[in-house]
């Protein structure tokens, strides 16, 4: 089945280029009860909306690739001009919480309220209501899916249960993978990480291998990047080379997550899955 996924235009495999444009919002959420007295990581993360996103937009413009940007509402509120520039450049805006709250940390009513507020703001900035969501830190709950469906979203992009688009209830899932998340390579805040950040050539080589594997198996590569990490000039330059290579292959469909979700909804025949969590009375093998 994997070699037979019906990629748009008869392509052999798929590539989505996505950015979690979250700046300092993850730190603000994580330290909400204990605000940091140190400006170091805040400023490191503010590089994303301040500078990194512009290097990224330049990279995408040079390659002609349209991407999906998952934007917390707080970021859209605080860096409104940068978010408007992302939209004006032809990229998709999608939801990523109000201030990077993982669904499992919120009651369903709180999740609904934060996403409604974020959706209203992104729609006000772009004139387009977001169709998709990515959960902060790839942490998702079954109740979160119910809220996404209630809000009328068409897709989620948070989970790793397949390497092609699939369905969870009424939503299309555009799957992610830690191996194609730049944070695994680049995230380094001087806060006790066990290893220094990998260089841009290491990520370039690793992601070339991901593209080769996908082209062999007919699967999706969903690149997940953060402007405060991948927006540094040497990294943006390697990303440009990777995207140029991906285009030169000629057999990769390249588009936004929203476009792929719409395609899957129109063409796929897979049955809707569920997101049951195991419990000690049902399915937990202990
Ligand atoms: Zn994030």
Automatic annotation (TrEMBL):
Domain of life: Bacteria
PANTHER family: POLYSACCHARIDE DEACETYLASE FAMILY PROTEIN (AFU_ORTHOLOGUE AFUA_6G05030)
Lineage: Bacteria, Bacillati, Actinomycetota, Actinomycetes, Kitasatosporales
One Pfam family hit: Polysacc_deac_1
Species for this entry: Streptomyces tremellae
Ranges of residues in domain NodB homology: 38-255
Identification of the protein by name: Polysaccharide deacetylase
């Amino acid at each position: 089945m994997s070699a037979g996924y019906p990629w748009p235009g008869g392509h052999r495999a798929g590539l989505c280029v996505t950015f979690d444009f979250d700046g300092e919002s993850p730190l603000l959420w994580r330290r909400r009860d204990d605000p940091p007295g140190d400006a170091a990581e805040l400023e490191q993360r503010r590089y994303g909306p301040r500078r990194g996103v512009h290097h990224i937009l330049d990279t995408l413009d040079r390659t002609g690739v349209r991407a999906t940007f998952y934007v917390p509402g707080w970021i859209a509120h605080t860096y409104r001009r940068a978010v408007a520039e992302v939209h004006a450049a032809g990229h998709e805006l999608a939801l990523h919480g109000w201030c990077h709250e993982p669904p499992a940390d919120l009651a369903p009513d709180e999740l609904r309220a934060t996403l409604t507020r974020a959706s209203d703001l992104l729609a006000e900035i772009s004139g387009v209501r977001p169709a998709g969501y990515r959960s902060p830190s790839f942490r998702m709950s079954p109740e979160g899916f119910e809220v996404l469906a209630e809000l009328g979203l068409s897709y989620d992009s948070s989970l790793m249960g397949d390497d092609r688009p699939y369905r969870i209830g009424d939503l299309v899932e555009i799957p992610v993978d830690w191996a194609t998340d730049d944070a695994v390579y680049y995230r380094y805040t001087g806060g006790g990480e066990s290893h220094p950040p990998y260089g841009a050539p290491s990520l370039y080589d690793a992601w070339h291998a991901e593209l080769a594997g996908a082209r062999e198996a007919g699967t999706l590569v969903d690149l997940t990047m953060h402007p405060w990490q991948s927006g540094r000039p040497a990294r943006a330059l390697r990303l440009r080379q990777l995207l140029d290579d991906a285009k030169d292959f000629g057999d990769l469909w390249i588009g936004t997550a929203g476009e792929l979700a719409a395609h899957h909804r129109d063409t796929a025949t897979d049955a809707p899955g569920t997101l049951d969590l195991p419990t000690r009375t049902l399915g937990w093998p202990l």
